[in-house]
């Protein structure tokens, strides 16, 4: 177990030593997607970041229960408990049942997560599957005096809560300023305070998804699902709660308030927030119209794209930025990532071909230590990538015969690359998975070898140049011929 892992806690606004409540067990809850439409690349960045954190905690020896929910009900268009239900609106638009919408976009989300080679969470609960738990929690909040009913709708009483607790603990905002910046209540508003938010919303007769409750037919507010489900699967107090930075101001602020009003203490010890993927400095989002879909990126079928990029190129591009920095999308940056990722994979493919010497001019332990230190410093993946390129340099120099490596150090180099590239980063060799291409190339290389042995240089050159023309480079050495994509 790495005892020196530091992570940035949004509540304290500094890096803290990670001390799980019940080591080696770790409970981590991440707010999942709202499945009324396709996930865009910005959403993917957040889930890929938490996949990295999940993987590294496991690498460090922790037993992680990773809960990532699916929001499949109760998400109104406005943050102020008004506007249409997103699922109902989409269902009408696509002429489907709301649950068909949920199924369609949940499957699509899983496909995208698989393409990015992320690990599935340990539990993936849905809001609609936990209506009873949400109602129970709301009942306790009402009993504790922090919520009130107005005609079948239940509101959380932020003013009352603020008398005892710090409502803005996550963002450090000034409550007076927040009030001043929030629209005044009008005649049609039922809630008592401007910052109050709905825990349960009364259904209209035409509401498509509604459930029975002690307050009549209705549906849950958006925030209560995460409070109820995290408590159910991780306990009333657990280790890490995460999501995108845009969730901190409202969704997570309200989650803390609900859990505290219900259980009298905060739900999570560490709050972690990933920064946004931007396009020309603007946050990628569906509403801004700059939120392109993973499929558009892979095919290049989008006006902002010069060409398509493979899933692992995109993932590598994301890992090259720290999860708390913004990451701006650009074709140039993706081109650079494509080259970098190929260099990395090329080195991986050379690993089995390296021969060990009796002595070693290189030591691998310091490299592993640098990688671990970087990850222990709030999951600093860009620093790990710089260290991995040092490993690439070693592989290439040994392969060229300009550096000696012993069998022990070579083994360490192989495990280091396996651990960080594949296990911790969750990258995969897209060419290696293309077994048919590998087999065909092995055959073509064997034919070229035969031609050379028969001094048929015209044929051997024709093969080499032909492959070069389709972007495949052959490299001859005393151990045989290898190929790489140029
Ligand atoms: P949603 O489906 O809109 O609830 O979002 C799912 C997750 O994606 C949440 O954790 C959001 O904070 C996150 N997210 C949304 N937009 C971006 C973005 N541009 N960059 C990174 N994460 C984002
Ligand atoms: Zn949530």
TrEMBL record:
- Is Transferase a UniProt keyword of this protein? no
Its domain of life? Answer: Bacteria
- Which positions does the motif 'KMSKS' region occupy? 283-287
Q: Where does it localize?
A: Cytoplasm
Cofactor(s) this protein cannot do without = Zn(2+)
Q: Which NCBIfam families match?
A: cysS
**Span(s) of short sequence motif 'HIGH' region:** 33-43
Keyword tRNA-binding carried by entry: no
Keywords per UniProt = Aminoacyl-tRNA synthetase, ATP-binding, Cytoplasm, Ligase, Metal-binding, Nucleotide-binding, Protein biosynthesis, Zinc
Where, by residue number, does ATP bind? Answer: 286
Its main localization is cytoplasm
Q: What is this protein called?
A: Cysteine--tRNA ligase
Reactions the enzyme catalyzes = tRNA(Cys) + L-cysteine + ATP = L-cysteinyl-tRNA(Cys) + AMP + diphosphate
Cite the cofactor comment: Binds 1 zinc ion per subunit.
Name the gene for this chain.
Answer: cysS
Provide the residue positions that the database annotates as binding Zn(2+): 31, 226, 251, 255
Tell me the organism: Pedobacter planticolens
SUBUNIT field: Monomer.
GO CC terms in record: cytosol
Domain Cysteinyl-tRNA synthetase class Ia DALR, first and last residues per copy: 370-437
Q: Name one GO biological process term.
A: cysteinyl-tRNA aminoacylation
**Family according to the record:** Belongs to the class-I aminoacyl-tRNA synthetase family.
PANTHER family membership: CYSTEINE--TRNA LIGASE, CYTOPLASMIC, CYSTEINYL-TRNA SYNTHETASE
Gene3D superfamilies xrefs: Cysteine-tRNA ligase, C-terminal anti-codon recognition domain, HUPs
The entry lists its GO molecular-function terms as:
ATP binding; cysteine-tRNA ligase activity; zinc ion binding
This entry's Enzyme Commission designation comes to: 6.1.1.16
């Amino acid at each position: 177990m790495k005892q020196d892992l530091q992570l940035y806690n949004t509540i304290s606004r500094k890096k803290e030593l990670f001390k799980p409540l019940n080591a080696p067990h770790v409970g981590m809850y991440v707010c999942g997607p709202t499945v009324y439409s396709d996930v865009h690349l910005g959403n993917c960045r957040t889930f890929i970041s938490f996949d990295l954190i999940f993987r590294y905690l496991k690498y460090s020896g922790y037993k992680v229960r990773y809960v990532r929910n699916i929001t499949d009900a109760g998400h109104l268009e406005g943050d102020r408990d008004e506007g249409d239900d997103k699922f109902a609106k989409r269902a009408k638009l696509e002429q489907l049942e709301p649950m068909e919408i949920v199924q369609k976009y949940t499957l699509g989300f899983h496909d995208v997560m698989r393409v990015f080679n992320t690990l599935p969470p340990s539990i993936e609960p849905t809001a609609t599957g936990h209506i009873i738990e949400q109602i129970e929690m709301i009942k306790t909040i009402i009993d504790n005096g922090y919520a009130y009913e107005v005609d079948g709708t239940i509101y959380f009483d932020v003013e009352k809560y603020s008398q005892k607790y710090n409502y803005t603990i996550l963002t450090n905002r000034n409550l007076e300023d927040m009030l001043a910046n929030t629209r005044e209540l009008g005649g049609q508003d039922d809630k008592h305070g401007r910052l109050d938010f709905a825990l349960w919303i009364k259904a209209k007769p035409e509401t498509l998804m509604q459930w029975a409750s002690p307050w009549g037919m209705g549906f849950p507010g958006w925030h209560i699902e995460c409070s109820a489900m995290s408590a159910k699967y991780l306990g009333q107090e657990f280790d890490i709660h995460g999501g995108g930075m845009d969730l901190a101001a409202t969704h997570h602020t309200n989650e803390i308030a609900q859990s505290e009003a219900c259980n009298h203490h905060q739900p999570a010890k560490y709050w972690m927030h990933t920064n946004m993927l931007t396009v020309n400095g603007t946050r990628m989002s569906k509403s801004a119209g700059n939120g392109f879909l993973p499929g558009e990126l892979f095919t290049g079928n989008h006006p902002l794209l010069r060409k398509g990029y493979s899933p692992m190129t995109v993932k590598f591009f994301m890992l090259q930025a720290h999860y708390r920095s913004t990451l701006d999308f650009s074709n140039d940056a993706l081109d650079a990532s494509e080259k970098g990722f190929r260099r990395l994979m090329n080195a991986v493919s050379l690993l089995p071909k390296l021969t060990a010497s009796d002595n070693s001019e290189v030591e691998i332990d310091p490299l592993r230590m640098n990688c671990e230190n970087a990850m222990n410093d709030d999951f600093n993946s860009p620093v790990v990538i710089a260290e991995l390129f040092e490993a690439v340099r070693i592989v290439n120099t040994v392969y060229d015969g300009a550096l000696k490596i012993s069998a022990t150090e070579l083994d360490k180099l192989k495990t280091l690359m396996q651990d960080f590239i594949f296990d911790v980063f969750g990258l995969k060799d897209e060419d290696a998975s293309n077994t048919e291409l590998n087999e065909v190339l092995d055959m073509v290389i064997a034919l070229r070898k035969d031609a050379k042995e028969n001094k048929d240089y015209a044929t051997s050159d024709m093969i080499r140049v032909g492959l070069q023309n389709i972007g495949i480079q052959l490299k001859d050495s005393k151990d045989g011929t290898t190929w790489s994509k140029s």
